[in-house]
Amino acid sequence: MKIHFFKYQGAGNDFILLDNRDLSIDHHQPKLIASLCDRRFGIGGDGMMFLQQKDGFDFEMVYYNSDGQPSSMCGNGGRCIVAFARDLKIISDETNFLAVDGPHYAKISDNWVSLQMIDVNSVSEDGDACVLNTGSPHYVIEAKDLKNKNVFTEGRAIRYNNTYAKDGININFVETFDDHLFVRTYERGVEDETFACGTGVTAVALAMAKKRNQTGTINIPVKVLGGNLNIRFDYDGERFSNIFLEGPAKFVFEGEVEVK
Q1: For residues 242 and 231, is the Cβ–Cβ distance under 8 A?
Q2: pLDDT single digits (tens) 44-86
Q3: pLDDT tens digits for 95-152?
Q4: Exposed/middle/buried for 58, CB within 10 Å: 0-12, 13-18, 19+?
Q5: Given a cut of 90, is residue 7 above it in pLDDT?
Q6: What is the pLDDT averaged over residues 205-221?
Q7: Superfamily for 124-241?
Q8: Is 2-117+249-255's fold the same as 124-241's?
Q9: Residue 145: CA atoms inside 13 Å, Cβ hemisphere, count?
Q10: At a CB cut-off of 8 Å and minimum separation 6, what does 153 contact?
Q11: Active-site residue flag, 74
Q12: 2-117+249-255 belongs to which CATH class?
């Protein structure tokens, strides 16, 4: 059987997308998904998404990590599937869609997507690190000379320590500059560093606002290996709301692949 696929990327976070509104593709196939996400023997991607119909919404986002397993929310994946829906003419410039962590609103202008994330009501501490869930669980730790840090080795060590090995967690290292944050992330499910992580940079921005005792309406530019993102939100000292992950989402190519 041939599968028609599309490839999109958001700040270097790349995904395979399939239009599955007719439910012709059974996506409960972890080995197949993992093989298609393989960068040497498949199409290559940090994850794979299926756009499906859902009553009461413009569409549903069904997301799998590159290991073939169902995943929690992927922020950059959410932005890319909004661009995909626009290109399929399912939506125009605004949308309400359903993801694994609930409903999401998004707005798209050209290739720039603003995606509303879930509200965050708590941030806990693990030593010097912050731990919070922005649709996916994240560990945020400050770092110096981040460009030279071995994120794979250090991130993997934290992700598989006694606290987090069972359920997994995404590890974010952040360095503060005058006009932006620089973030590098080790992602569970991918089990490697990625060029960007949308829920990760969101978690970092919230954690840093809490550490700095910032309140009000806050806007934080973030640089990642794959480009530039922006996080804006409201914080009253206890609860984060109106959280938006913003950045580019671009079509890369489309094609067909033979699967058995």
Answers
A1: no
A2: 999 999 999 999 999 999 999 999 999 999 999 999 999 999 9
A3: 999 999 999 999 999 999 999 999 999 999 999 999 999 999 999 999 999 999 999 9
A4: middle
A5: yes
A6: 97
A7: Diaminopimelate Epimerase; Chain A, domain 1 (3.10.310.10)
A8: yes
A9: 3
A10: none
A11: yes
A12: alpha beta
Which residues, in sequence order, are CB contacts of 120 under 8 Å at separation 6+? 132, 133, 134, 206, 239, 240, 243
Q: Name residues whose C-beta falls within 8 Å of residue 40's C-beta, 6 or more positions apart in sequence.
A: none
1 falls in which pLDDT band (50, 70, 90)?
confident
Distance CA 32, CA 48 (A): 11
Of 73, 146, 55, 153, the residue nearest 115 (C-alpha): 73
Token representation of residue 106 = 């998004």
**Type of residue found at 88:** L
Pull the structure tokens for residue 31: 């080995």
Output b/e per residue, 20-45; b: 16+ Cβ within 10 A. Answer: beeeebebeeeebbbebbeeeebbeb
Known catalytic membership, residue 197: yes
From residue 222, alpha-carbon distances to 19, 47, 159, 181, 215 in Å are 31, 22, 23, 5, 18
The one catalytic residue among 37, 80, 130, 197: 197
Domain ranges (residues) in the chain: 2-117+249-255, 124-241
pTM more than 0.85:
yes
Query: 72, 207, 199, 64: which is closest to 129 by C-alpha?
Result: 207
Q: Are 198 and 79 in contact (CB under 8 A)?
A: yes
Q: Which residues, in sequence order, are bridge partners of residue 227?
A: 224
Q: Please pick, among 37, 74, 80, 130, the residue that the annotation labels catalytic.
A: 74
